[in-house]
From TrEMBL:
<dbReference type="Pfam" id="PF02945">
    <property type="entry name" value="Endonuclease_7"/>
</dbReference>
<protein>
    <recommendedName>
        <fullName>Recombination endonuclease VII</fullName>
    </recommendedName>
</protein>
<dbReference type="InterPro" id="IPR038563">
    <property type="entry name" value="Endonuclease_7_sf"/>
</dbReference>
<dbReference type="InterPro" id="IPR004211">
    <property type="entry name" value="Endonuclease_7"/>
</dbReference>
<dbReference type="InterPro" id="IPR044925">
    <property type="entry name" value="His-Me_finger_sf"/>
</dbReference>
Length: 157
């Protein structure tokens, strides 16, 4: 039995069978939900962002991404002297990482976090704040001190 490409597809969000063309994003990417559903979700979240404001978005991002409050984050930042716990670069020296797409109305997006919250993957507890580069680097070394030490020894050969 040969399968012809379905002309319609079931959207898990609205539960409707809709034209397959509605499941293709603007960039040509295949979508799980239909485009009208995604557009609605997007405009709701945009309205939500407008209501809670930049400080609210920052708090929500911290909670969602790192599971901590703004107060906890700021306490860590000041305890680390606003520097990456590994390379010691100051926040002001770090490149701004963008959060999300630029807004259509030209207003700035919420302030990006230059120091990211590093979690211990085993215990889930917060280890400290790192710049994006150092955070990625220890991830590449699988958070393994022995491998990092071996890398340091290799570099000093
Ligand atoms: Zn839908
Ligand atoms: Zn760093």
């Amino acid at each position: 039995m040969t399968e012809s490409p379905a002309a319609t597809q079931l959207c898990p969000r609205c539960g409707k069978q809709r034209a397959a063309a509605l499941f293709i994003g603007r960039s040509g990417k295949r979508l799980k939900s239909c485009r009208p559903c995604l557009d609605t979700a997007q405009s709701i979240s945009r309205r939500h962002r407008d209501r809670i404001g930049a400080a609210g978005v920052r708090a929500a991002n911290l909670r969602d991404k790192y599971g901590i409050t703004v107060e906890e984050y700021d306490r860590l930042r000041s305890a680390q002297d606003y520097r990456c716990a590994i390379c010691r670069r100051h926040e002001d020296e770090l490149p701004a990482s963008s959060v999300g797409r630029p807004r259509l109305d030209g207003r700035p997006t919420a302030t990006a976090f230059k120091l990211v919250v590093d979690h211990c993957h085993r215990s889930g507890s917060v280890r400290g704040l790192l710049c994006v580069g150092c955070n990625a680097a220890i991830g590449h070394f699988r958070d393994d001190p022995a491998v990092l030490l071996a890398a340091a020894a290799y570099l000093s050969r």
